[in-house]
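Problem: given the chain below (503 residues), write out its structure.
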Amino acid sequence: MDMHFISTGPFQYMHMLAIYTAAKTQVVKQINLWYTEKPTGRYFDAIKDLVVLWEVKTGNCPAFNGLDPQTKAAYDKDVIQWRVLDSVGGLYMDLDTLSFRDIAFPDVKEMFASLDVEDPSSIPFPYNNAVVGATPGKVTNFILKFVEGKIKQPSICWGDTGPIVVSMAAAAFPDKFELIAHEILNPFGGNEISQIYAEHDIVAHKAIKQIRKSKVMHLYAKADQRFNSINAEWVRVSKSALATIIKENVPEEIWGIRGSWDKEAYLNRRGKHYAGLFRAIAQHPGEHIMEIGTSSGETAEGMIREMGEIVAHGEKSINYYGIDLFETGTNEQWEREFTGGYVPPKCADVKLRLEQCTKASINLAAMDSTDRSEVNKQMKYWPAMDFIFIDGGHSIETVKSDLALAMCFMHDFTAIVIDDYFPEMPFIGTKIAVDGIDRTKFNVYIAPEIDDYTHPFGRLRTQLVVVTRKMPVKGPTGPLGNPSLMERELKNDWSKDILRKIQ
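Solution.
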């Protein structure tokens, strides 16, 4: 008997886990992956040796016209499923399943399917087509004819090609249909599935006990939007039943695989003016990154992931140094720095997040960047930086101080990227500090990308600025190494002024 999975879209993290756990538990001759979009990427690479690929198309289905891509993909999957099972039979599982024990396909029946509920008489259509075993015969032919007829109609209803037709087949052919108990195959159904995502210890413990009794668990991807957030970072930190059971049944070299860095998704989420940040990283790669204004660590993660794609030894060679007030900030400071009520998470929480979602060495300092005694205490032995990002306070005094501090950590080839350049509002943000930079010593480039954010006072237009030294006067042809702050040769008046203040 063969086993079948069907992929009708991009190959995802949970698809990898579904195939991996099935390959380790189900006794089958081979696992076939039928696809409409050829699977690629890190997740597929991890399991590609476990499957045999088959390209398949559903053709023109009038009933699918006008459906959103996700819904259409689900119906495409159903059509392919019934065509395959009626042709060759075997064991079929959705790609949102996890296998724990062999199902052991029954020999005396033409089909088995899983129940969505414990009591099949409690709802009109109690079966689910997420886990189905079949031998070609009357049952599969009945289902396929029904489905082929449905997709030729101008519209279709939810469940027509799945739970509804399976339940109809079970009623029409009771002697050829095997019931698989809900609590044995799928311990959760419908809204109950939310239990597996709960971070509450008692709920998670109860759910884990139920899952351990099961052979296969259907995750009902569309029943809980949290399904789309499952990835290596989530599994690593979550205390939920689902994360626990994944770690129990899948080795870390599989579940710990991260997806490729998606720069476009970051830009769509944060704003198009951050394209200048990533362009500067490409032009000034290095292993030492500093950020003044770490906040939640989202930009830090983006910089580390982007730099990790460029530097020779990847993320593991990157050292990130971040500064923020974190929990040491006061309401007066937040108001003075025009934060709009935003307060960053605790320093330890941000450090943990960055250590779990990147491979870089993370160094954070919870302090006021304008406090020279704290600068001397916490940053005295920080190295020269290859890349510096300033996105801290918005008051003119703080921005000037942060820029001067960043220049203390420059070597001849360091790039400083400055956020919050508000060309229409010079009284806050970085414009005055940037306009005051000595152009005889520094190159100052204002990136063309612009984001307009809506605020109660009107439009807030912002850009990025990139600052680099003019051609070095002396020294080696590469970065100067990692001298401490107190040993570093200072090459501009602002740096010398800061050094006088912290000594």
